[in-house]
Amino acid sequence: MSSSHLFRGGRVFTGTGYAEAFLVEGDWFVAVGSDAEIGRLRPDGCEVHDLQGDVVLPGLIDAHLHLAEMAVQESGVALAGASSVTEIIEAAQAWSTAHPTGPIIGRGWNIRDGREDDWPTRNDLDRIDARRPAILYHASGHAAVANSAAMQEIGIGRGSRDPAGGRIGRDRDGDPNGRLWESALGPATKLAHEAALADPSALIRQFHRLSSFGITAVGAMNSDPVELSALTVASAASPLPVRVACYLNLDWFGRLSDSAVAGLVAPTERLRVAGVKAFIDGAFGTRTAWLTEPYSDDRSTSGMPVHSRDLLLPALARAQRIGLTPAVHALGDRAVVEALQILEQARPWPDRPLGRIEHAGLVPPEHYRTIARSGAQLVVQPIFVASDYWLAQRLGPERARWAYPFGSLKRAGCRLAGSSDAPFDLLDPWMGMWVAVRRCDPVGRSANPASAEAVSPEAAMRMYTAEGARAIGPPAQGTITAGGPADFVRLAAPSLERGLEVGAPAVRETWVGGVRVYSASRASS
Protein backbone atom coordinates (compact mmCIF):
# COMPACT_ATOMS: atom_id res chain seq x y z
CA MET A 1 0.00 0.00 0.00
CA SER A 2 1.32 3.44 -0.92
CA SER A 3 2.29 5.84 1.87
CA SER A 4 1.56 8.81 -0.44
CA HIS A 5 -2.03 9.94 -0.98
CA LEU A 6 -3.32 12.84 -3.07
CA PHE A 7 -6.87 13.99 -2.35
CA ARG A 8 -8.44 16.27 -4.94
CA GLY A 9 -11.79 17.40 -6.32
CA GLY A 10 -13.38 18.39 -3.03
CA ARG A 11 -13.92 21.23 -0.58
CA VAL A 12 -11.26 21.11 2.15
CA PHE A 13 -11.94 23.07 5.34
CA THR A 14 -8.44 23.60 6.67
CA GLY A 15 -9.55 25.11 9.96
CA THR A 16 -9.00 28.69 8.83
CA GLY A 17 -10.25 28.62 5.23
CA TYR A 18 -10.88 26.38 2.26
CA ALA A 19 -8.74 24.53 -0.29
CA GLU A 20 -9.43 22.00 -3.08
CA ALA A 21 -6.75 19.37 -2.52
CA PHE A 22 -3.98 18.12 -0.28
CA LEU A 23 -1.07 15.67 -0.35
CA VAL A 24 -0.22 13.20 2.42
CA GLU A 25 3.12 11.42 2.72
CA GLY A 26 3.47 8.93 5.54
CA ASP A 27 2.01 10.41 8.72
CA TRP A 28 1.93 14.03 7.57
CA PHE A 29 0.25 16.61 5.39
CA VAL A 30 2.92 17.90 3.02
CA ALA A 31 0.94 20.33 0.84
CA VAL A 32 -2.52 21.96 0.78
CA GLY A 33 -3.89 24.10 -2.06
CA SER A 34 -5.68 24.02 -5.39
CA ASP A 35 -6.17 20.92 -7.52
CA ALA A 36 -3.62 22.23 -10.02
CA GLU A 37 -1.01 23.11 -7.39
CA ILE A 38 -1.22 19.81 -5.55
CA GLY A 39 -1.45 17.77 -8.78
CA ARG A 40 1.96 19.07 -9.86
CA LEU A 41 3.49 17.73 -6.62
CA ARG A 42 2.22 14.18 -7.11
CA PRO A 43 5.11 11.72 -6.50
CA ASP A 44 5.56 8.42 -8.31
CA GLY A 45 3.40 5.65 -6.87
CA CYS A 46 1.06 8.10 -5.16
CA GLU A 47 -2.52 6.90 -4.67
CA VAL A 48 -5.03 9.46 -5.96
CA HIS A 49 -8.40 9.86 -4.23
CA ASP A 50 -11.19 11.68 -6.07
CA LEU A 51 -13.27 13.44 -3.41
CA GLN A 52 -16.16 13.90 -5.87
CA GLY A 53 -17.18 17.18 -4.27
CA ASP A 54 -17.14 15.91 -0.69
CA VAL A 55 -16.05 18.19 2.12
CA VAL A 56 -12.97 17.22 4.16
CA LEU A 57 -12.40 18.48 7.71
CA PRO A 58 -9.59 18.21 10.25
CA GLY A 59 -9.97 15.19 12.50
CA LEU A 60 -12.40 15.90 15.33
CA ILE A 61 -11.07 16.11 18.89
CA ASP A 62 -13.07 15.27 21.99
CA ALA A 63 -11.00 16.98 24.66
CA HIS A 64 -12.86 15.51 27.66
CA LEU A 65 -14.33 12.02 27.92
CA HIS A 66 -13.92 8.91 30.08
CA LEU A 67 -12.72 5.78 28.28
CA ALA A 68 -13.04 3.33 31.17
CA GLU A 69 -16.52 4.61 31.96
CA MET A 70 -17.51 4.16 28.32
CA ALA A 71 -16.45 0.52 28.59
CA VAL A 72 -18.40 0.20 31.86
CA GLN A 73 -21.50 1.56 30.16
CA GLU A 74 -21.16 -0.76 27.18
CA SER A 75 -20.74 -3.92 29.25
CA GLY A 76 -23.02 -3.15 32.21
CA VAL A 77 -26.64 -2.43 33.01
CA ALA A 78 -28.17 0.21 30.71
CA LEU A 79 -30.11 2.54 32.99
CA ALA A 80 -30.49 5.66 30.85
CA GLY A 81 -34.28 5.37 30.76
CA ALA A 82 -34.71 4.41 34.42
CA SER A 83 -36.37 7.20 36.43
CA SER A 84 -37.85 5.30 39.39
CA VAL A 85 -36.60 2.73 41.88
CA THR A 86 -38.83 0.09 40.29
CA GLU A 87 -37.44 0.72 36.80
CA ILE A 88 -33.86 0.70 38.12
CA ILE A 89 -34.27 -2.62 39.92
CA GLU A 90 -36.15 -4.28 37.07
CA ALA A 91 -33.44 -3.34 34.56
CA ALA A 92 -30.67 -4.55 36.87
CA GLN A 93 -32.49 -7.82 37.60
CA ALA A 94 -32.91 -8.53 33.89
CA TRP A 95 -29.21 -7.87 33.26
CA SER A 96 -28.22 -10.02 36.25
CA THR A 97 -30.25 -12.94 34.93
CA ALA A 98 -28.54 -12.68 31.56
CA HIS A 99 -25.08 -12.28 33.15
CA PRO A 100 -25.02 -14.64 36.16
CA THR A 101 -21.41 -14.09 37.26
CA GLY A 102 -19.27 -11.11 38.25
CA PRO A 103 -20.21 -7.69 39.66
CA ILE A 104 -23.42 -5.97 38.60
CA ILE A 105 -22.39 -2.54 37.33
CA GLY A 106 -24.75 -0.04 35.72
CA ARG A 107 -25.02 3.65 35.02
CA GLY A 108 -27.48 6.25 33.82
CA TRP A 109 -30.46 6.26 36.21
CA ASN A 110 -31.91 9.65 37.09
CA ILE A 111 -34.81 10.33 39.42
CA ARG A 112 -34.77 13.98 38.41
CA ASP A 113 -37.93 15.25 40.08
CA GLY A 114 -37.33 13.42 43.35
CA ARG A 115 -35.19 14.27 46.36
CA GLU A 116 -32.33 12.07 47.51
CA ASP A 117 -34.78 10.33 49.86
CA ASP A 118 -36.45 8.92 46.73
CA TRP A 119 -33.26 7.28 45.49
CA PRO A 120 -32.71 3.51 45.78
CA THR A 121 -30.77 2.14 48.75
CA ARG A 122 -28.58 -0.89 49.29
CA ASN A 123 -31.64 -2.78 50.54
CA ASP A 124 -33.29 -2.24 47.15
CA LEU A 125 -30.18 -3.48 45.34
CA ASP A 126 -29.88 -6.49 47.64
CA ARG A 127 -33.10 -7.77 46.05
CA ILE A 128 -31.27 -8.17 42.73
CA ASP A 129 -28.63 -10.65 43.97
CA ALA A 130 -27.36 -10.29 47.51
CA ARG A 131 -24.31 -12.49 46.81
CA ARG A 132 -22.76 -10.33 44.08
CA PRO A 133 -21.45 -6.75 44.38
CA ALA A 134 -23.81 -4.31 42.66
CA ILE A 135 -23.05 -0.63 41.96
CA LEU A 136 -25.49 1.51 39.98
CA TYR A 137 -24.31 5.00 39.03
CA HIS A 138 -26.41 8.15 38.72
CA ALA A 139 -26.44 9.63 35.20
CA SER A 140 -24.04 12.40 36.25
CA GLY A 141 -21.40 9.96 37.50
CA HIS A 142 -21.17 11.99 40.71
CA ALA A 143 -23.30 9.62 42.82
CA ALA A 144 -24.10 5.91 42.98
CA VAL A 145 -25.88 3.27 45.03
CA ALA A 146 -24.13 0.07 46.15
CA ASN A 147 -25.58 -3.11 47.62
CA SER A 148 -24.42 -4.76 50.85
CA ALA A 149 -21.94 -7.06 49.10
CA ALA A 150 -20.32 -4.12 47.29
CA MET A 151 -20.20 -2.03 50.47
CA GLN A 152 -18.40 -4.88 52.23
CA GLU A 153 -15.93 -5.31 49.35
CA ILE A 154 -15.03 -1.62 49.20
CA GLY A 155 -14.75 -1.35 52.98
CA ILE A 156 -17.67 0.89 53.93
CA GLY A 157 -19.50 0.01 57.14
CA ARG A 158 -21.16 1.53 60.19
CA GLY A 159 -17.92 3.04 61.49
CA SER A 160 -16.91 4.60 58.16
CA ARG A 161 -16.55 8.36 58.11
CA ASP A 162 -17.31 10.64 55.18
CA PRO A 163 -14.13 11.12 53.15
CA ALA A 164 -12.89 14.62 52.37
CA GLY A 165 -14.91 15.91 49.43
CA GLY A 166 -17.47 13.11 49.58
CA ARG A 167 -20.44 11.78 51.46
CA ILE A 168 -21.79 8.41 52.55
CA GLY A 169 -25.57 8.24 52.82
CA ARG A 170 -26.99 6.89 56.09
CA ASP A 171 -30.30 5.64 57.42
CA ARG A 172 -31.96 6.87 60.61
CA ASP A 173 -29.81 4.56 62.71
CA GLY A 174 -26.59 5.87 61.19
CA ASP A 175 -25.85 2.80 59.11
CA PRO A 176 -24.62 3.40 55.53
CA ASN A 177 -27.61 3.08 53.19
CA GLY A 178 -25.59 2.43 50.02
CA ARG A 179 -25.78 5.95 48.59
CA LEU A 180 -22.38 7.47 47.76
CA TRP A 181 -21.38 10.91 46.51
CA GLU A 182 -18.24 12.39 44.95
CA SER A 183 -14.94 11.18 46.52
CA ALA A 184 -16.76 8.39 48.39
CA LEU A 185 -17.08 6.72 44.98
CA GLY A 186 -13.35 6.05 44.61
CA PRO A 187 -13.20 2.39 45.77
CA ALA A 188 -16.46 1.58 43.93
CA THR A 189 -15.07 3.03 40.70
CA LYS A 190 -11.95 0.84 40.94
CA LEU A 191 -14.16 -2.23 41.23
CA ALA A 192 -16.25 -1.13 38.23
CA HIS A 193 -13.19 -0.46 36.06
CA GLU A 194 -11.62 -3.81 36.89
CA ALA A 195 -14.81 -5.57 35.80
CA ALA A 196 -15.16 -3.63 32.52
CA LEU A 197 -11.48 -3.64 31.47
CA ALA A 198 -10.50 -7.20 32.36
CA ASP A 199 -10.25 -7.61 28.58
CA PRO A 200 -8.46 -4.63 26.93
CA SER A 201 -10.43 -5.28 23.74
CA ALA A 202 -13.23 -3.37 25.47
CA LEU A 203 -11.18 -0.23 24.78
CA ILE A 204 -10.59 -1.17 21.14
CA ARG A 205 -14.37 -1.31 20.66
CA GLN A 206 -14.60 2.22 22.07
CA PHE A 207 -11.90 3.42 19.66
CA HIS A 208 -13.78 2.04 16.66
CA ARG A 209 -16.90 3.81 17.90
CA LEU A 210 -14.95 7.08 18.19
CA SER A 211 -13.58 6.68 14.67
CA SER A 212 -17.09 6.25 13.28
CA PHE A 213 -17.87 9.79 14.46
CA GLY A 214 -14.72 11.21 12.84
CA ILE A 215 -12.93 11.56 16.19
CA THR A 216 -9.16 11.23 15.83
CA ALA A 217 -7.92 12.37 19.26
CA VAL A 218 -9.29 12.47 22.81
CA GLY A 219 -8.50 13.70 26.27
CA ALA A 220 -9.08 10.68 28.57
CA MET A 221 -9.99 12.17 31.92
CA ASN A 222 -9.38 10.83 35.43
CA SER A 223 -7.27 7.91 34.21
CA ASP A 224 -6.50 5.34 36.90
CA PRO A 225 -4.09 2.36 36.98
CA VAL A 226 -6.71 0.01 35.53
CA GLU A 227 -7.43 2.21 32.52
CA LEU A 228 -3.81 3.09 31.81
CA SER A 229 -2.76 -0.57 32.02
CA ALA A 230 -5.47 -1.55 29.52
CA LEU A 231 -4.43 1.29 27.20
CA THR A 232 -0.79 0.20 27.37
CA VAL A 233 -1.68 -3.39 26.49
CA ALA A 234 -3.91 -2.26 23.61
CA SER A 235 -1.24 0.11 22.30
CA ALA A 236 1.44 -2.60 22.37
CA ALA A 237 -0.68 -4.87 20.19
CA SER A 238 -1.05 -2.35 17.35
CA PRO A 239 -1.11 1.44 16.83
CA LEU A 240 -4.21 2.92 18.43
CA PRO A 241 -6.70 4.25 15.86
CA VAL A 242 -7.24 7.33 18.05
CA ARG A 243 -4.66 9.57 19.72
CA VAL A 244 -5.12 9.42 23.51
CA ALA A 245 -3.92 12.08 25.95
CA CYS A 246 -4.43 10.80 29.52
CA TYR A 247 -5.15 13.01 32.54
CA LEU A 248 -4.31 11.13 35.72
CA ASN A 249 -6.65 10.72 38.66
CA LEU A 250 -5.40 13.21 41.27
CA ASP A 251 -5.40 10.78 44.18
CA TRP A 252 -3.33 8.24 42.22
CA PHE A 253 -0.97 10.97 41.01
CA GLY A 254 -0.41 12.01 44.63
CA ARG A 255 0.82 8.51 45.52
CA LEU A 256 3.36 8.38 42.68
CA SER A 257 6.89 9.74 42.65
CA ASP A 258 7.96 11.98 39.78
CA SER A 259 10.02 9.14 38.30
CA ALA A 260 7.06 6.75 38.59
CA VAL A 261 4.84 9.23 36.71
CA ALA A 262 7.47 9.52 33.98
CA GLY A 263 7.58 5.73 33.68
CA LEU A 264 3.83 5.10 33.43
CA VAL A 265 3.87 4.87 29.63
CA ALA A 266 6.49 5.31 26.95
CA PRO A 267 5.05 8.40 25.22
CA THR A 268 4.14 7.90 21.58
CA GLU A 269 2.17 9.88 19.04
CA ARG A 270 -0.86 7.75 19.91
CA LEU A 271 -0.65 7.42 23.74
CA ARG A 272 0.81 9.72 26.38
CA VAL A 273 0.19 11.12 29.85
CA ALA A 274 -0.72 14.78 29.34
CA GLY A 275 -2.02 16.05 32.66
CA VAL A 276 -3.71 15.61 36.01
CA LYS A 277 -7.47 15.78 36.65
CA ALA A 278 -8.77 17.49 39.80
CA PHE A 279 -12.23 18.38 41.09
CA ILE A 280 -13.44 21.61 42.61
CA ASP A 281 -17.11 20.54 42.75
CA GLY A 282 -19.71 18.07 41.49
CA ALA A 283 -22.77 18.22 39.21
CA PHE A 284 -26.03 20.16 38.82
CA GLY A 285 -27.99 16.90 38.65
CA THR A 286 -26.91 15.86 42.16
CA ARG A 287 -26.89 19.45 43.50
CA THR A 288 -23.18 19.10 44.23
CA ALA A 289 -22.03 21.77 41.74
CA TRP A 290 -20.72 24.59 43.97
CA LEU A 291 -22.75 27.80 43.68
CA THR A 292 -22.39 31.29 45.11
CA GLU A 293 -26.05 31.20 46.18
CA PRO A 294 -28.23 28.20 47.18
CA TYR A 295 -30.10 26.12 44.65
CA SER A 296 -33.50 27.54 43.75
CA ASP A 297 -35.22 24.16 44.18
CA ASP A 298 -33.42 23.34 47.45
CA ARG A 299 -32.41 26.36 49.50
CA SER A 300 -30.69 24.13 52.05
CA THR A 301 -27.63 23.63 49.84
CA SER A 302 -25.34 25.51 47.48
CA GLY A 303 -23.38 22.41 46.50
CA MET A 304 -20.08 21.16 47.86
CA PRO A 305 -16.35 21.45 47.27
CA VAL A 306 -14.63 18.15 46.48
CA HIS A 307 -10.83 18.63 46.50
CA SER A 308 -9.70 21.27 48.99
CA ARG A 309 -7.40 24.17 48.16
CA ASP A 310 -4.80 22.77 50.58
CA LEU A 311 -4.73 19.55 48.57
CA LEU A 312 -4.88 21.12 45.13
CA LEU A 313 -2.24 23.83 45.37
CA PRO A 314 0.82 21.62 45.97
CA ALA A 315 -0.46 18.81 43.73
CA LEU A 316 -1.14 21.04 40.73
CA ALA A 317 2.08 23.00 41.21
CA ARG A 318 3.98 19.71 41.19
CA ALA A 319 2.12 18.58 38.07
CA GLN A 320 3.15 21.79 36.29
CA ARG A 321 6.78 21.42 37.36
CA ILE A 322 7.04 17.97 35.78
CA GLY A 323 5.32 19.07 32.57
CA LEU A 324 1.72 17.93 33.16
CA THR A 325 -1.29 20.15 32.50
CA PRO A 326 -3.80 20.69 35.34
CA ALA A 327 -7.40 20.00 34.28
CA VAL A 328 -9.78 21.23 36.98
CA HIS A 329 -13.47 20.28 37.06
CA ALA A 330 -15.52 23.38 37.95
CA LEU A 331 -19.22 23.50 37.08
CA GLY A 332 -20.82 26.03 39.44
CA ASP A 333 -20.01 29.76 39.47
CA ARG A 334 -18.28 29.60 42.85
CA ALA A 335 -16.23 26.62 41.65
CA VAL A 336 -15.12 28.46 38.48
CA VAL A 337 -13.79 31.38 40.54
CA GLU A 338 -12.05 28.96 42.91
CA ALA A 339 -10.50 27.10 39.98
CA LEU A 340 -9.07 30.29 38.50
CA GLN A 341 -7.56 31.32 41.81
CA ILE A 342 -6.04 27.90 42.47
CA LEU A 343 -4.58 27.60 38.97
CA GLU A 344 -3.04 31.07 39.27
CA GLN A 345 -1.48 30.26 42.64
CA ALA A 346 -0.29 26.81 41.54
CA ARG A 347 1.45 28.11 38.40
CA PRO A 348 5.19 27.71 39.14
CA TRP A 349 6.35 30.17 36.46
CA PRO A 350 4.51 33.29 35.23
CA ASP A 351 4.97 32.36 31.56
CA ARG A 352 3.55 28.85 32.06
CA PRO A 353 0.08 28.26 30.51
CA LEU A 354 -2.54 28.38 33.25
CA GLY A 355 -4.16 25.02 32.50
CA ARG A 356 -7.70 23.80 31.81
CA ILE A 357 -11.05 24.42 33.45
CA GLU A 358 -13.47 21.60 32.71
CA HIS A 359 -17.16 22.38 32.09
CA ALA A 360 -17.45 26.03 33.30
CA GLY A 361 -21.21 25.47 33.47
CA LEU A 362 -22.38 28.66 35.19
CA VAL A 363 -20.37 31.80 34.40
CA PRO A 364 -21.94 35.20 35.11
CA PRO A 365 -20.66 38.15 33.00
CA GLU A 366 -18.51 39.67 35.74
CA HIS A 367 -16.02 36.80 35.31
CA TYR A 368 -15.51 36.90 31.53
CA ARG A 369 -12.64 39.37 31.40
CA THR A 370 -10.82 37.65 34.26
CA ILE A 371 -11.03 34.30 32.47
CA ALA A 372 -9.91 35.81 29.16
CA ARG A 373 -6.93 37.59 30.76
CA SER A 374 -5.89 34.42 32.56
CA GLY A 375 -5.49 32.46 29.33
CA ALA A 376 -7.20 29.45 30.88
CA GLN A 377 -8.47 26.89 28.39
CA LEU A 378 -12.17 26.24 28.97
CA VAL A 379 -13.16 22.71 27.95
CA VAL A 380 -16.93 22.78 27.55
CA GLN A 381 -19.67 20.34 26.54
CA PRO A 382 -22.22 21.97 24.21
CA ILE A 383 -24.49 18.92 24.53
CA PHE A 384 -25.14 19.96 28.16
CA VAL A 385 -27.22 22.88 26.81
CA ALA A 386 -29.69 20.29 25.54
CA SER A 387 -29.47 17.57 28.18
CA ASP A 388 -29.71 20.03 31.11
CA TYR A 389 -32.98 21.48 29.75
CA TRP A 390 -34.37 21.35 33.31
CA LEU A 391 -31.66 23.66 34.67
CA ALA A 392 -33.82 26.80 34.99
CA GLN A 393 -35.91 25.00 37.61
CA ARG A 394 -32.80 24.06 39.57
CA LEU A 395 -31.04 27.43 39.34
CA GLY A 396 -33.92 29.80 38.66
CA PRO A 397 -34.42 31.38 35.19
CA GLU A 398 -32.46 34.55 35.97
CA ARG A 399 -29.35 32.63 36.98
CA ALA A 400 -29.76 29.99 34.26
CA ARG A 401 -29.39 32.78 31.68
CA TRP A 402 -25.64 32.50 32.28
CA ALA A 403 -25.44 28.73 31.93
CA TYR A 404 -23.09 27.57 29.18
CA PRO A 405 -22.65 31.11 27.73
CA PHE A 406 -20.41 30.15 24.81
CA GLY A 407 -21.15 33.18 22.63
CA SER A 408 -20.42 35.65 25.43
CA LEU A 409 -17.26 33.84 26.47
CA LYS A 410 -15.92 33.78 22.91
CA ARG A 411 -16.67 37.48 22.37
CA ALA A 412 -14.75 38.22 25.57
CA GLY A 413 -11.73 36.43 24.12
CA CYS A 414 -11.94 33.17 26.09
CA ARG A 415 -10.65 29.92 24.61
CA LEU A 416 -13.30 27.20 24.27
CA ALA A 417 -12.63 23.58 23.33
CA GLY A 418 -15.52 21.21 22.67
CA SER A 419 -16.08 17.78 24.17
CA SER A 420 -18.75 15.32 25.24
CA ASP A 421 -17.99 14.11 28.79
CA ALA A 422 -19.07 10.69 27.46
CA PRO A 423 -20.51 8.44 28.76
CA PHE A 424 -22.07 10.94 31.16
CA ASP A 425 -23.60 12.58 28.11
CA LEU A 426 -23.98 11.84 24.41
CA LEU A 427 -20.68 11.04 22.68
CA ASP A 428 -21.77 12.40 19.27
CA PRO A 429 -19.65 15.54 18.44
CA TRP A 430 -21.99 16.37 15.55
CA MET A 431 -24.90 16.78 17.92
CA GLY A 432 -22.60 18.83 20.15
CA MET A 433 -21.82 21.19 17.28
CA TRP A 434 -25.50 21.29 16.27
CA VAL A 435 -26.47 22.37 19.79
CA ALA A 436 -23.64 24.94 19.95
CA VAL A 437 -25.07 26.57 16.82
CA ARG A 438 -28.79 26.25 17.62
CA ARG A 439 -28.77 26.36 21.47
CA CYS A 440 -31.39 23.59 21.84
CA ASP A 441 -32.00 19.93 21.16
CA PRO A 442 -33.93 18.80 18.05
CA VAL A 443 -37.27 19.26 19.85
CA GLY A 444 -36.43 22.74 21.17
CA ARG A 445 -35.43 22.01 24.79
CA SER A 446 -32.60 24.05 26.28
CA ALA A 447 -30.90 24.93 29.55
CA ASN A 448 -30.34 28.44 28.17
CA PRO A 449 -31.84 29.19 24.74
CA ALA A 450 -30.47 32.75 24.51
CA SER A 451 -29.52 33.33 20.87
CA ALA A 452 -26.63 35.54 21.98
CA GLU A 453 -24.87 32.41 23.23
CA ALA A 454 -24.98 30.63 19.85
CA VAL A 455 -21.82 30.30 17.76
CA SER A 456 -21.34 30.00 14.00
CA PRO A 457 -20.88 26.60 12.30
CA GLU A 458 -17.21 27.41 11.65
CA ALA A 459 -16.68 28.42 15.30
CA ALA A 460 -18.39 25.23 16.47
CA MET A 461 -16.12 23.19 14.22
CA ARG A 462 -13.02 24.95 15.56
CA MET A 463 -14.10 24.07 19.11
CA TYR A 464 -13.81 20.40 18.11
CA THR A 465 -10.65 20.79 16.02
CA ALA A 466 -8.06 23.55 16.55
CA GLU A 467 -9.25 24.50 20.05
CA GLY A 468 -9.50 20.85 21.00
CA ALA A 469 -5.91 20.38 19.84
CA ARG A 470 -4.82 23.36 21.93
CA ALA A 471 -6.49 21.75 24.95
CA ILE A 472 -4.89 18.29 24.71
CA GLY A 473 -1.60 19.39 23.13
CA PRO A 474 0.59 17.95 20.37
CA PRO A 475 0.75 15.91 18.25
CA ALA A 476 -2.94 16.68 17.67
CA GLN A 477 -3.15 19.83 15.56
CA GLY A 478 -6.79 20.30 14.58
CA THR A 479 -6.00 21.83 11.19
CA ILE A 480 -5.16 20.61 7.69
CA THR A 481 -1.77 22.27 7.31
CA ALA A 482 1.49 21.27 5.66
CA GLY A 483 3.73 19.78 8.32
CA GLY A 484 0.86 18.70 10.57
CA PRO A 485 -0.28 15.14 11.37
CA ALA A 486 -2.54 13.73 8.65
CA ASP A 487 -5.70 13.37 10.75
CA PHE A 488 -8.86 14.19 8.80
CA VAL A 489 -12.47 13.27 8.10
CA ARG A 490 -14.22 12.94 4.75
CA LEU A 491 -17.94 13.66 4.76
CA ALA A 492 -20.60 12.59 2.29
CA ALA A 493 -21.67 16.23 2.08
CA PRO A 494 -20.76 19.21 -0.14
CA SER A 495 -20.32 21.73 2.68
CA LEU A 496 -19.68 22.11 6.39
CA GLU A 497 -23.22 23.41 6.94
CA ARG A 498 -24.71 20.36 5.21
CA GLY A 499 -22.44 18.08 7.21
CA LEU A 500 -23.76 19.58 10.45
CA GLU A 501 -27.33 19.06 9.27
CA VAL A 502 -26.76 15.40 8.42
CA GLY A 503 -24.58 14.74 11.46
CA ALA A 504 -22.66 11.54 12.19
CA PRO A 505 -24.18 9.56 9.27
CA ALA A 506 -22.30 11.92 6.93
CA VAL A 507 -18.91 10.55 8.06
CA ARG A 508 -17.56 8.62 5.06
CA GLU A 509 -13.93 8.06 6.14
CA THR A 510 -11.68 8.83 9.10
CA TRP A 511 -7.88 8.98 8.73
CA VAL A 512 -5.26 9.14 11.50
CA GLY A 513 -1.58 9.62 10.73
CA GLY A 514 -2.16 9.05 7.02
CA VAL A 515 -3.96 5.72 7.56
CA ARG A 516 -7.67 5.13 7.05
CA VAL A 517 -9.05 3.85 10.36
CA TYR A 518 -12.76 3.98 9.47
CA SER A 519 -14.76 3.57 6.28
CA ALA A 520 -18.55 3.78 6.27
CA SER A 521 -18.74 1.45 3.29
CA ARG A 522 -16.72 -1.22 5.08
CA ALA A 523 -18.64 -0.78 8.33
CA SER A 524 -21.94 -1.38 6.53
CA SER A 525 -20.75 -4.37 4.48
How would you characterize the overall build of this protein?
- By secondary structure, the chain is an alpha/beta fold.
- The protein has three domains: 4-53 and 481-524, Urease, subunit C, domain 1 (Roll), CATH 2.30.40.10; 69-193, Diaminopimelate Epimerase, Chain A, domain 1; 276-472, Metal-dependent hydrolases (TIM Barrel, Alpha-Beta Barrel).
- The protein contains 22 helices and 24 strands.
- Strands 8-15-16-17-18-19-20-21 form an eight-stranded parallel β-sheet, sandwiched between helices.
- The two termini are 22 Å apart.
- The relative contact order is 0.14.
- The model has no long low-confidence stretch (mean pLDDT 93).
Strand content: 15-25%
Number of strands: 24
The stretches of 5 or more residues where confidence is low (pLDDT under 50) are: none
Instruction: Please give the share of residues in helix.
Output: 25-40%
Q: Widest sheet: strand order?
A: 8-15-16-17-18-19-20-21
Secondary-structure content class? alpha/beta
CATH architecture of the largest domain: Alpha-Beta Barrel
Highest-level CATH class of the largest domain = Alpha Beta
**Discrete helix count:** 22
| Distance from first to last alpha carbon | 22 Å
Explain briefly what this protein structure is:
By secondary structure, the chain is an alpha/beta fold.
Layout: helices, strands, pairs:
Blueprint: E1 4-8, E2 11-13, E3 18-19, E4 21-25, E5 28-33, H1 35-40, E6 47-50, E7 55-58, E8 60-65, H2 67-75, E9 77-78, H3 85-98, E10 104-109, H4 122-126, E11 134-138, E12 143-146, H5 148-153, E13 166-170, E14 176-182, H6 186-196, H7 201-212, E15 215-223, H8 225-237, E16 243-249, H9 250-255, H10 258-262, E17 271-279, H11 309-321, E18 325-330, H12 333-346, E19 356-359, H13 368-374, E20 377-380, H14 383-387, H15 391-395, H16 397-400, H17 406-411, E21 415-418, H18 429-438, H19 457-463, H20 466-472, E22 488-491, H21 496-502, E23 507-512, E24 515-519, H22 520-524
Parallel strand pairs: 1-6, 2-7, 8-15, 9-10, 10-11, 15-16, 16-17, 17-18, 18-19, 19-20, 20-21
Antiparallel strand pairs: 1-4, 2-3, 4-5, 7-22, 11-12, 12-14, 13-14, 22-23, 23-24
Helix pairs in contact: 2-6, 2-7, 11-12, 18-19
